[in-house]
Write a structure and sequence with these properties.
Blueprint lengths: L1 H13 L20 H15 L3 H13 L31 H14 L6 H14 L35 H9 L5 H8 L6 E3 H4 L1 H4 L13 H10 L9 E3 L11 H7 L6 H4 L5 H10 L2 H15 L23
Antiparallel strand pairs: 1-2
Amino acid sequence: MKASFLLFVVCLGALTVCNAGDLREHFYEKSCPLAEDIVKKITQQRVAANSALPAKLLRLHFHDCFVRGCDGSVLLNCTANNKAEKDAIPNLTLAGFDVIDEIKTKLEETCPEVVSCADIVALSARDSVSFHFNRPMWKVLTGRRDGNVSHASEVLVNIPAPFSNFTTLKQNFANKGLDVHDLVVLSGAHTIGVGHCSVFSNRLYNFTGKGDADPSLNSTYAAFLRTKCKSLSDTTTTVEMDPHSSLSFDSHYYVILKQNKGLFQSDAALLTNEGAAKTVDELTNLTDFFTEFSHSMERMGAIGVLTDHSGEIRKKCSIVNSS
């Protein structure tokens, strides 16, 4: 009863077409029996060759779901008359599109126009993170259909920014039907991957516009970061979001967060709210983190999904089908 209620809330919060009851496990069991095996095989082959890929595919899923719901709209290319989501500033560093395209090509050969790009994104994010555990780290319900609208102008107002304060983050998530608990749990995705200096270097060199550092950032860690990010103008250098553990999906993010070593202002913001800070403490426990991350990913994966006859099943993930 609780799970159904939460999915219902997510659908309402997204203010888009959604019937979470239409999402289910093994949606393609009859229409494309090998679908999930194909996604898993290709994803894990690519992860075996590139250990940084899980962070990229997980981020791709997140950025897809927070704009127009989990409808694959982040995959669409710009057209002569429209600047698409992937060309918005927060999405310029997204990666993994080639993996999605490879999977889609194989699926179109196997069962044409059956498996949505939106489901491929959700499944590949899960399968990439799960690779080193030899078991699925969360349940992915399937049955999403693909959207045919993608506007760059909608990205900044929907994607939580790395320099946001707690109030803004809370509202960002509430707009999607997610609560503070989900906010803290899903922030744990920062346990893998890297951040660009340009996104956080103001915390090192010009936090309040007076050439100062962010006092909430561990001073020793700040000194280390300055050896990597040497100026405010550095737009290419990257730094691990979870120091010395950026390839391991674990609860270490919460450990370093309590040491005031969260890389982004949005990380540090989690400690400014009593309830969120308490959740941070709880999630330092690895088992608790895995359990809660699984639940929050299921909720996020239901944001604004298109099902039944809404949307389409794209033949190619980067372009809408011809009318």
